[in-house]
């Protein structure tokens, strides 16, 4: 090809080297994933690697973990949509819910309610977690963030990091640093349940319970945000605080409601986490908080359905990804690359779709 | 890195004695869902799982391992990182073996301070409200008393200022002999001092952690 044809071609495509590099990254990612998948499929056909039953368990575990990430991500997403900063303390709001769940459940074990009437005990545990998390979230907003409403965006962010450390180490001081063991649910839940009577879809009872409760909570939240008056004012304030205030919406109260609803969701996630993993400590909230924010970005920041979807997908990538893709390459000891896979997935989604999967919803001040 | 070293040492010793290692893998600190790594391990059809993980990760492993198909009857062995109340008392810890420092030290008395193992545990519990969070608490206590004794021996008070010769403390440490809570302590030229007994315990009673810790099935003396 002559050089003038080359020049015409690149001028037409308007390609500079950055664009070419990014296209190269996309192609390399697709090829990498495809080879890994093919390798895993070949292994499976040969009878090596995880069995079909094992894959089913992996997917279910990923979904259970993912729904909890989704619940926490809702809080991050809503606060970012309304106030434009990442509330790092939200992970500790979640931890507060989990700690409350531990204390309530231990108390119920002592009084015997846990064994006698598990359903009532569980409902009370979830309600108390929601209450505790909501209280923490609202207090944090009132004490730490309200004065910083008009400050440059970086200031509330750093404040939230400080609040996060404060809450973590207050919990360590108050409750000790050891891992608290949440009581076991009744034996029936620990067995596998045959869902829909299909015979092959056997899900562990606790995981099924967690998935169902989380999905129901997300549906309730979606209903509140989309169909009620409170939800409408939340969406209006998220869209444009100033104009919403001129329309007669009490902006302060709506922001508190946003924090409260996000906190309640995190509380539910906390009690579900305690129920599923049966271990709570003062830094239980740190890593899930970061992953949940990642999930919110994955699905599109400010977008409620995006947060739920992002959480679900992140849980799936984390659980299934290493064995599905990396094992096909023949890499040994693949499970420790779980976090690598999850965050690489975030990077790749953003490379292909920079505003997240379902698009971001930012307020007028942030849209630039 | 600590657990990696233990795992590698175990692998080397196991293979030397004729065993085969089917899967050698790792988890991250902070992992909660162990389905992935346990599935990876189950794919190798093991008879036994050795995991020197710390709580809370080992708690999650213990709770989830029996739910993974293929792992229902695998023998489970932990190391000294899990030789703590935090792990031993959960119901799923029943049947686990643990390797670690000799735990039968309650009645041994430290000859420098005169405190026995049991007295130390009582004092720790009443000050912090929980048991020590690592298995080497007796080693820490004895080491601390040795260090303080060495400083006492070497330090010189000149007009109200305390001078402590660093090399002097190091030399003094190497030459101190005492009866510690872990047993007789005497340091060789590599700084290895005492505590030469490693025991394997079998946890058959998570509801009575003290008895569980005393259930020694094998003792290895160098």
- Principal-axis shape of chain A equals globular
Number of domains of chain A: 1
Largest sheet of chain B: 5 strands, mixed
CATH structural class of chain A: Mainly Alpha
Give the topology string of chain A: H per helix, E per strand: HHHHHHHEHEEHHHHEHHHH
Question: What do we call the CATH topology of chain A?
Answer: ABC transporter involved in vitamin B12 uptake, BtuC
What's the assembly state of these chains?
heterodimer
Q: What's the architecture of chain A in CATH terms? A: Orthogonal Bundle
Report the sheet-strand fraction of chain A. under 5%
Q: What is the distance, rounded to the nearest whole angstrom, between the alpha carbons of the first and last residues of chain B? A: 24 Å
Average pLDDT score of chain B: 84
From the helix content, strand content and strand pairing of chain B, which structural class follows?
alpha/beta
Q: Report the helical percentage of chain A.
A: over 70%
Q: Describe the biggest sheet of chain A?
A: 2 strands, antiparallel
Arithmetic mean of pLDDT of chain A: 88
CATH fold naming of the largest domain in chain B: Rossmann fold
Please provide a written account of the structure:
The complex is a heterodimer of chains A (368) and B (222). By secondary structure, chain A is mostly helical. Chain A has a single domain (50-367), classed as ABC transporter involved in vitamin B12 uptake, BtuC (Orthogonal Bundle), CATH 1.10.3470. Helices cover 75% and strands 3% of the residues of chain A. Chain A is built from 16 helices and 4 strands. Chain A has a two-stranded antiparallel ribbon. A two-stranded antiparallel ribbon of chain A has the order 2-3. The longest helix of chain A is centred in the first third of the chain and has 32 residues, at 52-83. The radius of gyration of chain A is 23 Å and the shape is globular. The two termini of chain A are 43 Å apart. Chain B is an alpha/beta fold and 222 residues long. Chain B has 2 domains: 2-102 and 196-221, Response regulator (Rossmann fold), CATH 3.40.50.2300; 117-186, no CATH class. Helices cover 37% and strands 18% of the residues of chain B. Chain B has helices at 2-16, 35-42, 57-65, 85-88, 117-128, 137-154, 166-175, 209-214; strands spanning 48-51, 75-78, 97-101, 156-158, 161-163, 177-180, 183-186, 197-202, 216-221. In chain B, the strands form 3 sheets. A 5-stranded mixed sheet of chain B has the order 1-2-3-8-9. In chain B, strands 4-5 form a two-stranded antiparallel sheet. In chain B, strand 4 and strand 5 form a beta hairpin. Chain B is elongated and about 70 Å long. The mean pLDDT of chain B is 84.
